[in-house]
């Protein structure tokens, strides 16, 4: 079972009204939540660790996970409120404003972390759950504890406007990236982390030097690349009519993890024996499922029968 560790929240999506104004409609979301749902829809055994409220939105989040074949056994329930993400769309491109102070997701602690089940095969981290305390330290501690035994994939999915203490966030993220087997970043994330000097390959090499076996860089319509030991593999983006980009990267990550699971390569030993070219099939599935997601509104990843 792949364990997705991080935020589950409500995306408030703008919907045009007859009078020309926008109303915001709640949809289940969050980067880590979206990846968990996408994995479940692909038929991959998956569970989620997250702080979930007992309020109506928290109930909706838990129900959505279960309906999409994601185990809810590891959720940490509390009476705190659910995080809200106000989504702004400009020509289909999404930006976010988060309402997260004192939320069920943010206030999860090291002591709250459940014991990993015996059938755990890999852990996935990222998103805004790595930014704010105490949740960020709780996930960092889990990553440090588990990384020696299980493959770890991290997608920081950086939201600069949400980061209030950049030095502390950078230090925490740097430690976690050093424990990861697979690092996935967008080209924008990569520039934020490295400073943006040099080519994408040069920047990716800086990340791989921290210890990861693979660094994957996505470039929107330009496709994706994977770097391993100086070798680079490229995969083109799938053609799609873009409605919006909500959940595209999260779905891509599910495609990568799902392919590795399906091929029996989601172990630390198997990953060590793989080259960048060996990862091309995982990138291709990531591109394929992401293309479906961007072709319809919101984070709505495909089921296995759709691909």
TrEMBL record:
GO terms for biological process: fructose metabolic process. InterPro entries: Carboh/pur_kinase_PfkB_CS, PfkB_Carbo_kinase, PfkB_dom, Ribo/fructo_kinase, Ribokinase-like. Residues 2-302 form the Carbohydrate kinase PfkB domain. One of its GO terms (molecular function) is fructokinase activity. It holds the Pfam family PfkB. Keywords: ATP-binding, Kinase, Nucleotide-binding, Transferase. Belongs to the carbohydrate kinase PfkB family. This is Carbohydrate kinase. It comes from Sulfitobacter geojensis.
